[in-house]
Every structure is written in structure tokens, then in C-alpha cells.
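Continuing the batch. This is chain 6 of the set; chains 1 through 5 are on the previous pages. Same settings as before, nothing changed between runs. Recording input and output for traceability.
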Amino acid sequence: MGEASSGAGEGAVAGERAGTNEWAGADEPAGPDEWSGRFEQQAAACDDLGSPLWARLLRIVAADVRAEGPSWSVLRERAGLRFGQAGPLRLVGAAHRLALAGSAPEWASLLPSCGGEAPPADADGERVLRSGWAGLVDHHGDALVAGLDREVQTNEVGRAAALGYAHAVALADRGGPARLVEIGCSGGLNLRLDRFGLDLSGGGSGPVLGDPDGRVRLAPEMSTVARAGLSTVGVVERTGIDPHPIDPTSVEGRLTLLSFVWPDQVERFARLAAAIDLAREVPAELVATAGRPTAEVLAEVLARPVGAGTATIVQHSIVWQYIPTDERAAVTSAIESAGERATAGEPVVWVRFEPDVWDRGRVAVWVRRWPEGGDRLVAHADYHGRWLAPVPTP
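Output for chain 6:
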């Protein structure tokens, strides 16, 4: 799932999941002033999350929309997209997609992810960026309109450091093996997190989890010291649930996932590309809900038998806000029902990487384990995994 807009963090940056028919509805068409405001808010979020190029572009589009210029002609075709469906990210994602696909070489020359060079942040650079955007709209307007129908899915693998840490803390007394089930899995890349290299040492004595020689290596800034003595939880079964899962091993799926990464964040782009390559080597089952309630599909997956001595981990990251309020209780009940069937030898763990209710500019990472039960806050984190702040645990 992904990056919509609700504040400083990913809520104002929805991405992986923003806009599915199942988890978000449609409003009456918004006008140019409201749409301009949406682009301005997304620009502020990109500033906060380290994408100055996309922030500049979003402000250029905001001004053009407010003036009812060519950008508004594109958006007007899909003006009924609701706020939470992340229209601004859909539009700039479509623009990035054209560059990645080789359809817009002049535009690609301005994007670092495509081997180009971002225009400088001065008056001349703004003219170059504005001209590049105008040319793209002029020559590829129909493709941009079509891109507004494509939901935003980034499948942020940077979150795997926090998720892997939560797995290790929750199962510190036993380790693996584990069955991993992810709600809102997008392309299922984080189902392979035990094959990532997760360096949580912070240059000190903290743990290094996963495969230190893995294709994907994460080393977030450690704001506090991670719990020592942790070991990797090995995953033996990987299942993702999503309204519209993406096959990351397909040409189309790879292009979709990469297009929603902000093009001046080249490390993040390379990290995602490496995770997609890993997905070709490590299989995972992706289950489409196909219009059925998420809770119903989740309950079926969790009812499957597991091997002797195998734990079950249910995880989700920046997903809860996209599940309708009246369905959340059913999802919780499905997990709790699995927890009631847990034994000491085959425990069930629920890991949540979701916005902190006290500070929307960061994520809170919670774990709950059965049969013991009880919620524990194990860390705070950045939405894209740039930093991790473990909470001291006994």
C-alpha cells in the first residue's frame, strides 16, 4: 500500500494503496482551487520527505491548475478523484512512468532516476522544469489522463528495517520459522524482508538481521539503541493480501512500482529495483481480495494449517487508514481469532507500522503476541524507513 495525504507524513503522501475502489470512494468533482491546494499539500510532504525536485514540480502544477492551464485540462477528466486517492501522486507518477518507459526522452533528461540531471533550484532551473512539464502535457496528455486511473503503489521496502526489528523482538525467545502474512501487500516485496540485509547497529553494538550480503541492504539512522541479542526470524511461507496485488516480476508491475518512487531519491529507487530483482528469486503468494471483504480473505489464509513449531506473523504498513472504518473491526477480529488458536509452540504475532496517533509526522510500530497477548510499542520510525528509534523493552 502506499502514499495519500493527511498530514506531515505518509498520510499526506499516500502511495502504495491510495485509491483502490475497495478502500476509498469517490466524491463530487473538485474544482481547480481545491485541486491546486492538494498539489500544494503534496509538495509540502515531498519537501518533508526529501524530494525537492518533486516538490518543485508539484508547485508548478499547482499554479497551472489554479490558472486553469493545460494541467487542469488533464485533471478535469478525473476531477472526481477524492482527496485520499492521491491524485497529485497519480499524475506525477504517470509522468515518471513515461520517462522510465522511454516514451519521453526530453523529460527523462531532467530526472535522476532515468540518468538525467535535475534542473538547479534557481530561476533558470524553474524555467527548464516548467518548460519540460509543459512539453510533456502537450505531447502526452492522453497518457497522463490514463495515469490518473492508476492507483498509487510504491511498496516501500525501507520499512522492512522496522518490520524486521519488530519480528525479532516479538519472537526473541524462539526465533523462526514463521509464516508471514501481509495485509495490503502491493507487490509483496516486504514479504522477503528476512532476505534483506538489515543493519540496525547504528555503528555500534546493535543487531544486524537478515542476510548481510543480500541484494537489498538497509541501514537506517538509529535514533536510539536497538535491543541487543536479537536474531533473524526466518520466513518459510509468504502470503500477501491486496485488492489489486502487483506482480513485481512482470514488466508492467516493475514499471508501476518504480514509477511511484520520487525520481530524485536515487537510493530509494535503487533499493526498490533490487527488491524487485530479489522477488524473482524468492516466491510469494499474492492473493487478490477480488471485491470480497479483506477480513474474510484474511480469515481464510490464517485458517490454513502451519508446520509444527511455526509461528504466524501478520503485518501491515500504512494500510489501516485505507480500510473503511466499518471493516476494521472485522479485520481485527480475524487476527484475534487466529490468536485464540495460537499455542506456545505456534504463536501468532500482529505487527503494525502505522501513523503515530500522537505525532502524525512519524510511525509507531506495535506488536501483539498470542497466546500471551498484550500490545507493545517497540519503535518509532520514519515513513520511508530513513530512521528508526527502538523503544527500550525488557
